[in-house]
Design a protein that fits this description.
Layout lengths: L10 E11 L8 E5 L4 E5 L8 H15 L7 E6 L10 H8 L3 E7 L5 E2 L2 H4 L4 H13 L12 E4 L2 E4 L15 H5 L18 H8 L5 H9 L15 H16 L4 H10 L20
Parallel strand pairs: 1-4
Antiparallel strand pairs: 1-2, 2-3, 3-5, 4-5, 6-7, 7-8
Helix pairs in contact: 4-6, 4-9, 7-8
Length: 284
């Protein structure tokens, strides 16, 4: 298993105790105690959304942390065989049995509270712009007024739940071409109304990411999360697809920056599109 990022280490731990489920989302993540005595919110590879959700969490979370944004520490969590032996809930037991092997965990933030759209409106404009830039880069469709996916912990904003990012990987065709496509969904970002210039945020952030960071990051994706793709091929070919998509996104001129800045400066910024009735769904 490849599990180390150059300059951005991802630790591997083993699950020792299943504590409780989080039933807010459809993937049924759970609070798990691990071999390092830490508590982690674990996203399970056997969940209905599939392992590509874990890939998105791993890559997007690592990018956020490299940018200096608050993203909980990411770990790889090994679920041992028979871990579900004493789990009385058959739904959870089945999920654990389907997730034996490598899963993804995020450091649990005890006592954290959700950041709603109203409190998000008071955020520092430069921080808001940097979060918009980050979500536009990673094509994250899921930080809207319906679900901000932000927590307040120790008087700071923390970013969570990035499984909906990098959505082209669900239907790879030409990663470089897909990376250049417009990202219209950024217009529904919850922080656009308060964000300062996305162009200025781009100037601040772009030097923090490089191909020297991206390649070790994608090389660290566990093989078990990369079943053969009908278009792209085997695990190594898929890693190259992720590298191509991300590095092309970062090439100038960056279309996602123009998309986000255009959305920010519209007169109707912050209005909810009535045609977007399904949470997190993008326009094709």
């Amino acid at each position: 298993m490849r599990n180390t990022f150059t300059g951005n280490d991802v630790r591997a731990v083993s699950a020792t105790r299943y504590v409780m489920p989080f039933r807010e989302g459809g993937s049924l993540p759970g609070l798990v105690e691990a071999s390092d005595d830490g508590m982690y919110v674990v996203k399970f590879r056997g969940a209905g959304q599939g392992p590509k959700t874990l890939v998105a969490e791993l890559l997007t979370g690592a990018i956020g942390r490299q940018l200096g944004l608050n993203v909980p520490e990411i770990v790889l969590v090994d679920i041992p065989a028979a871990f579900a032996r004493f789990e009385p809930d058959p739904e959870i037991a089945a999920l654990l049995d389907a997730s034996i092997g490598v899963n993804l965990g995020l450091d649990f933030l005890p006592g954290s509270l959700p950041v709603d759209a109203l409190s998000a409106a008071t955020m520092d404009p430069n921080l808001a712009a940097e979060i918009v830039w980050f979500d536009a880069l990673t094509a994250n469709v899921d930080r809207t007024t319906r679900n901000t996916n932000m927590l307040r912990w120790h008087d700071q904003v923390w970013l969570i739940d990035h499984g909906a990012a990098i959505y082209p990987h669900h239907r790879w065709s030409d990663p470089a071409e897909q990376a250049r496509r417009p990202f219209a969904a950024i217009s529904e970002h919850v922080l656009l109304p308060v964000a300062s210039s996305i162009v200025e945020a781009d100037n601040r952030l772009i030097e923090r990411l490089s191909e020297d960071f991206i390649w070790p990051m994608v090389a660290a994706i566990p093989d078990d999360w990369l079943g053969r793709d009908a278009v792209i091929g085997d695990a190594d070919a898929q890693r190259r697809a992720y590298f191509t998509w991300l590095s092309t996104r970062l090439d100038a001129p960056r279309r996602f920056v123009a998309d986000a800045e255009d959305a920010r400066t519209r007169s109707n910024v912050g209005e909810i599109d009535p045609d977007r009735r399904t949470r997190g769904r993008r326009r094709e």
